[in-house]
Amino acid sequence: MGHHGWQGNPPGTEQEARRRIVEAATACLDRAGLARTSLSDIAAEAGVTRQTVYRYFPKLADILGAVAIAGVEEFAVRMERHLATFGSPAEVAVESVVFGVRAVPLEPRLNLLLEAGEGEFFTGAVTSREWLALGARILRNVPVDWASSGVVADEDFAGLAEVLMRLFLSFLRHPSTPPLSDTQLRDLVGRWIGPSLAS
Q: Which regions of the protein are recorded as binding DNA (predicted)?
């Protein structure tokens, strides 16, 4: 494994190398923002060449996705806590969309996904294996009677998470005109998602 640079302290594993590049990217983004952060900046912060960064993250979008994932745990805890205040699988599903639409733009790390501009980056990040697994975990941790709605197996939670994440992704990328209030958004999603999870 090549260790050019690394400020004289090469990582011992591929995972450690990736972690340190993500930490370097986070420092650059915190300092300069997305518009003024390049792969060259991240490489300099990590003490490596651009080629080394490319080896672990072929595109800046890949690094941004990793930075967002690294900052998502606290968000997931808050989302689980919020969803736990609802009593049925249908309510939890609907509220997960509303929470995602309203909260993601306010999260510094997750907002990177919105700031990154048009194209497939946002979609690719939110529908990646890691994000879908996170969504499934959040749903599974909410203490409602999922079995009453037919959501039992791992693939059930994974499928539901994917549908809900794709739904809130759509609302984020293409907001309604005029914008929907929380109540309107909740009613719209509940009208079409709720019946599929009714006991």
A: 38-57
